[in-house]
Specification:
heterodimer; A: about 425 residues; mainly alpha; Rna Polymerase Sigma Factor, Chain: A; 21 helices; B: Alpha-Beta Plaits; four-stranded antiparallel sheet; two-stranded antiparallel sheet; globular
């Protein structure tokens, strides 16, 4: 890659959201901001090649995009009353709890992840407006048609305009729930990368996990005091740290207890542990942790054990007990049962898992967990049936390969 | 910005019938805070008549234009600066009415 391409790539990574956000604030129109920003980057590719990279690429891009937007307004003579009416509402008063922290990119996150938009629209819009991914890139990420992604984004932008979804950091009472909405979108992006579904896709999509981490780092920079933001970033880092050890050379998923811990990324683990320690200190000072912080703590315990046999299962179980109180979902109960199996044996755990049959019958991990517990209890035939069901339901190629091997290794009995 | 706020009831699982005093109090607040434009509760869908005069002569037919389990039980029109304000009010309205609420902007 030559210098110009590198400069453009860097400007795109660091500057895209900033330019879209600044233009959205100035013109009150997300659609216009997106198109003008895209045009400015396209112009940069040509101009920077011919004239060299400007001294301040970010300022050049914002100025160019602003000119593009003004040209577009003139061309479409959008500056009539109707357009003024359709401008997005925003206030210039930073909300009290945030004090000096006010960044247009934060407004952009909250608008793109607004609860009045459908989940798929929130994902696509966030990746496009904040992440700067193109429509074909988003379509590839979620294995859907480009036309479907384009339509989702168009509809979402139309709803934002028609229903007056504001361009604003929410007021203090609504802030935790709205931050939670943004984090949920980022976690979905991460999980789609970490456990990619589909027969023709890589088992781990590093592009997606990296993008989710990048955007979570951005929101962490914008909301440095939010415990759940720190928790989610730590959770992602500690999960990403195990990526290289998670899939074998033959493309098979490697279970946590079988992973080569030497292949874990020590830097990511250190950073994740640092964030978890920060949140533990806050918890000790009386700030109740949310679910991402507890999940991050569970991952911190796992990644602290140099050998799988050193895993502190009683601490993991205590954290799951805490998590169940925050999130009484059957999936949390299933994961808690895995910790119970390590402490009280597979029979006790199986009794807990069987109680979840109604809620999780269509979930591959439920059957995979049962299969493993039944195998450990020597109930091979029942284990085989459970593996069969798990393989049927699993959408990740590496996981299917792992489950198939485990099933085929079962003795008869 | 004005929003049409629809109160949705469910024939198979209707909301409670003792909500009128709470709704009146909520309306007073909407008026005091400048959000109230219009409000009205509707009679049963059986009382509806559909009129179609697109052809040669007007046709009157009994009943609502669409038969469904869920139906419109009443409407408000609110004035609100943006959707966040409207949604916060709608969340309260849903509690007050013990029914689902749809918020839809006017063009």
């Amino acid at each position: 890659m030559n210098d110009v391409e590198e400069a453009i790539t860097r400007a795109h990574r660091d500057g895209w959201a900033r330019v879209v956000a600044a233009l959205t604030r100035r013109f009150g129109d997300l659609d216009l901001a997106e198109e003008a920003t895209a045009e400015a980057f396209a112009t940069a590719v040509q101009r920077w090649r011919a004239d060299g990279v400007p001294p301040n690429p970010a300022a050049w891009l914002t100025t160019t995009a602003t000119h593009k937007a003004i040209d577009r307004i003139r061309r479409e003579s959008k500056r009539d009353d109707k357009h003024e009416e359709a401008r997005m509402v925003h206030d210039d008063e930073p909300p009290e709890p945030l004090g000096v922290i006010d960044d247009d990119r934060l407004r952009l996150f909250f608008t793109c992840c607004h609860p009045a938009l459908g989940v798929e629209a929130r994902l696509a819009l966030t990746l496009r407006m904040v992440g700067g991914l193109t429509v074909p890139e988003i379509a590839r990420a979620f294995l859907v048609a480009e036309s479907a992604v384009a339509q989702r984004i168009t509809r979402a932008k139309a709803k934002i305009k028609a229903a007056r979804i504001p361009y604003r950091v929410p007021a203090a009472p609504d802030l935790p729930a709205r931050v939670g909405g943004v984090l949920a979108v980022l976690f979905l992006v991460f999980n789609e990368g970490y456990l990619a579904t589909g027969p023709d896709t890589d088992p781990v999509r590093h592009d997606l996990t990296a993008e989710a981490i990048r955007l979570t780092r951005l929101i962490r920079a914008l909301l440095p005091d939010d415990g759940e933001v720190a928790g989610l970033l730590a959770l992602m880092l500690l999960t990403e740290a195990r990526r290289a050890a998670r899939v074998s050379a033959t493309g098979e998923l490697v279970a946590l207890h079988e992973q080569d811990r030497g292949a874990w990324d020590a830097d990511l683990i250190a950073e994740g542990h640092g964030l978890v320690r920060e949140r533990l200190a806050a918890a000790a000072a009386g700030v109740a942790p949310g679910r991402y912080q507890v999940l991050a703590a569970i991952n911190a315990v796992h990644t602290s054990a140099r050998d799988t046999r050193d895993t502190d299962w009683s601490q993991i179980l205590a954290l799951y007990d805490q998590l169940v109180r925050l999130d009484p979902s059957p999936i949390v109960a299933l994961n808690r049962a895995v910790a119970v199996a390590e402490l009280d044996g597979p029979e006790v755990a199986l009794a807990l898992v069987d109680r979840l049959a109604g809620a999780l019958a269509g979930y591959h991990a439920y059957h995979a967990t049962r299969a493993d517990l039944l195998r450990r209890l020597g109930r091979s035939e029942q284990s085989r049936t459970a593996y069969d069901r798990a393989i049927e339901l699993a959408g990740n190629t590496a996981e299917t390969a792992y489950l198939t091997r485990r099933r085929d290794q079962l003795g008869s009995g | 910005m004005q929003y049409l706020v629809s109160v949705i009831d469910d024939k198979t699982n209707p909301g409670s019938t003792d909500r009128q005093p709470a709704i009146s109090a909520f309306n007073e607040r909407l008026i005091a805070e400048g959000h109230w434009v219009f409000a009205g509760g509707l009679a049963d869908t059986e009382a509806a008549t559909v009129v179609d005069n697109r052809g040669e002569q007007a046709v009157f037919s009994d009943g609502p234009f669409v038969e469904s389990k869920e139906y419109l039980a009443g409407v408000w029109v609110w004035e609100a600066p943006d959707l966040d304000v409207a949604l916060a009010l709608a969340a309260e309205a849903s509690k007050v009415c013990d029914r689902k609420i749809e918020v839809r902007p006017f063009r």
